[in-house]
Amino acid sequence: MTGLRASGRAWVFGDAVNTDEMFPGFAMRMPTEEAARHMFDATRPGWPALVRPGDIVVAGRNFGLGSSRPVPLLFKALGVAAVAAEQFNSLFYRNCVNYGLLAVAVPGARGLVTEGDTVTVDPVAGRLVNETTGAAGEGTPLPPLLLDIVRAGGIFPRLEAAGKLRPRQWRRGPRLVQLRACRGARQGRPSLDGNLAKEVCK
Amino acid sequence: MPETLIQKILRARSADGPAASAGVGDIAICAVDLTVLIDLQFRHDRLDDVIAVHDPDTIVIVMDHAVPAPSVNDAEYAKMARAFAAEHRITRFYDVGRHGIVHQVVAERGLARPGTVLACTDSHTCAAGAFAVAARGLGPAEVLQIVCTGQTWHLVPPTIRYELRGSRHEWVNGKDVFLHIAGEYGDATGHAVEFGGPGVASLPMADRRTIATQGAEIAADFTLFPADDVCLDYLAEVAPGDDLAELDADPGASYADVRAVDLSEIGPMVARPDGVIGNAAPAGDLAGTRVDQAFIGSCANGQLTDLETAARILRGKQVAPGTRLIVTPASQQVYLRASRLGYLADLAEAGAVVTNPTCGACFGYHMGVVAAGENCITASTRNFKGRMGSPEASVFMASPATVAASAVRGTITDVREIMEAS
């Protein structure tokens, strides 16, 4: 199924990697793009600068232990295409589905992959393939209910399509400025952010 | 088929009706009875884009994480929360001054009703499991969806049951019970955790709430206690008038594992830095470890009884030179009562700093952030590396009594040494 599979260079992480490592508390003050540059500051400093769009994260057991902070947004901001783990923390897994980040749980995933290998993640089949070595692992395929959410790109596009959420098509720039600008534009008010408003809210 | 507590609740609230199956591994689409929004989610979430909420009467807003606003950005998001409440006519809005940490507010206002489904984006939402509520942390996007649709899905998890017997020692807290379990049995990823057995009746709601809250730290999907007399009495006191029924698992329900725990054998426990899973030890084993900062607060241990314990230990004593003690009541109600009962004065006299109610120091955001090389002992919820400030700080976790005793000595201390010595 196109769009629901990803192949890319693998980064390998350990067991019980927690959300505070991925999204440090202090970074919660920052816009998403900036916060993403602080992923793993405490445990793998400098990692975000090494990530290339399309890369894939492979991890061990209980991946994403911790809080509900929207870590998948940070992974997506860095260009990470998918995450595979031996086992996900369920809150983290829900977040991946709900923010439209491809995720698959495959027992033994870490043993199949050496950092830098090229891997393919296929959540629909519940499969992780190491294209470099030919090794493959099987996990649980994504249930149809969740597949629908991932296929839509997450919850936001679905709610927009259902007419429950006002569509927004901006992508870049400080969140707060965008919000002010969008609100100003919606209300038809000229503002200091007028030009930006036109750009981000069209 | 006999059912575990989580199976019972999810089946009863299933959109397919109470006759639907809730077998382990099934996905249940559930009506959500109460959705609680917090200040922080007005940041990354798109609540200001919501066209119409499903039902304003099932939504509550609680300002807790960044209050009073420590930055202009936080102030802006708080403004958005107020605008959202006004636009969507949400009347149960616990703004600064009527606020508290969300799970404390949910408990003390009687908002957690046994047998219901509760949604909130904070990961310690499992706290409401102390009231036999199917409550768990959900991502901000998912909570947004619930705000719009009034429902979500839950995967019915297998359940690990802790069969409790005996009763806890005077200086032992729900925190010690939890740390014992986390240290001994490790994580519960992908499972619900259920407490039962004859020992449950001896645990006051405060201890149950601490234990249920901390379930997130062992990666449990839900942490549930039965709605028994203790639970229903608590609810009748805080929210009188409602007719509530007892709720418990069925005898003969099927469990992934059943583990016996004798409460009377548990002593004061401390988790070593960087997580609680398989990482706890009796307080005595870590005795002598230097303490730079001691913290009592959070949704787990900022309750009135926690402040009373701390005040009792600190009364007539002083926080050790070179150590600072920060106490954060979990809500305005706790703050007010602790003030009237003299606990806050006892704490301040001993040299503690009492802050306003907030999540604050627990998530390293404000009101007591720690520096590199410092040791902190905390009665809060979580001790991941970097959680409370610098990633080069060491954060130990313990009960309010252990934290208070350690603040007095300036080193990690078994509270019984101080309080039972004479």
Top-tier CATH class of the largest domain in chain A: Alpha Beta
Share of helix among residues of chain B? 25-40%
The coarse overall form of chain B would be globular
Number of DSSP-assigned strands of chain A: 7
What is the CATH superfamily classification of the largest domain in chain A? Aconitase, domain 4
Rg of chain B, Å, rounded: 21 Å
Briefly characterize the structure.
The complex is a heterodimer of chains A (202) and B (422). By secondary structure, chain A is α/β, with parallel strands linked by helices.
Key structural traits:
heterodimer; A: 202 residues; alpha/beta; Aconitase, domain 4; 2 domains; 10 helices; disordered C terminus; B: 422 residues; Aconitase, domain 3; 5-stranded parallel sheet; 14 helices; 18% strand
Descriptive overview:
The complex is a heterodimer of chains A (about 200) and B (about 425). Chain A is about 35% helix and about 15% strand. Chain A has about 200 residues and is of the alpha/beta class. In chain A, strands 4-3-2-1-5-6-7 form a seven-stranded mixed sheet. Chain A has two domains: about 5-155, Aconitase, domain 4 (Alpha-Beta Barrel); about 170-200, no CATH class. In chain B, β9, α7 (about 205-215) and β10 form a beta-alpha-beta unit. Chain B has helices at about 5-10, 40-45, 70-85, 100-110, 140-150, 175-185, 205-215, 230-240, 300, 305-315, 330-340, 345-350, 400-410, 415-420, and strands at about 25-30, 35-40, 60, 95, 115-120, 135, 150-155, 160-165, 190-195, 220-225, 255-260, 270, 280, 295, 325, 355, 375-380, 395-400. The chains are: A alpha/beta (about 200), B alpha/beta (about 425). At the A-B interface, α1, α5, α8 and α9 of A face α3 and α5 of B.
